[in-house]
């Protein structure tokens, strides 16, 4: 003999069936859509970075010299090109860690040179020293390669519009007396991690969606 469950009394409240939570679902879907959009943006940046690296490699293969840019920002078409400047005098030294062309470590001697022209002057890497003592170099004609300067705006500064145009730098072909020639940065050394970043954003989106679905299913089964 089977028994049927007692019907609820007229005064007893009946709990309505649970459904998907609307507001949390909208918030999660918006977050997932944002992460997917960031992943797509990183894929676009990957293509842009590959094109930029190819341009820099072509620039580095050119032997003809170009006029050093007077004011920042330096066009991409001029980076890694050969150029020359006349340093009337170094007005400031900015020693930084670096390597020579044989891979040895040391202190990269960067001179902020006065050129006599309007503008912020020219940054010149004149070689690698063994300590932080500035060399007894008073300036002169410097031939070398135009590379991005040591001070580059951060991503937050670029996104907020507070970025100051970055100065380029000339890495001297011949070092100053008593110094070793600095290693010239290569376009191949530029990181291109945008594919990995895109994969991370897509993975985060998938994980967030799966976790939310599991959590809601458990809530509905209670």
How would the blueprint of this fold be written?
Blueprint: H1 22-61, E1 65-67, E2 82-87, E3 89-99, E4 105-114, E5 122-129, E6 140-148, H2 155-159, E7 168-172, H3 194-221
Helix pairs in contact: 1-3
Describe this structure in words.
This protein has 222 residues and is of the alpha/beta class. The chain has 2 domains: 21-64 and 189-222, no CATH class; 81-185. The chain has 3 helices and 7 strands; from the N terminus they run αββββββαβα. It has helices at 22-61, 155-159, 194-221; strands at residues 65-67, 82-87, 89-99, 105-114, 122-129, 140-148, 168-172. The protein has a 7-stranded mixed beta sheet, with no helix packed on it. A hairpin with a 5-residue loop joins β3 (89-99) and β4. The two termini are 29 Å apart. The mean pLDDT is 86.
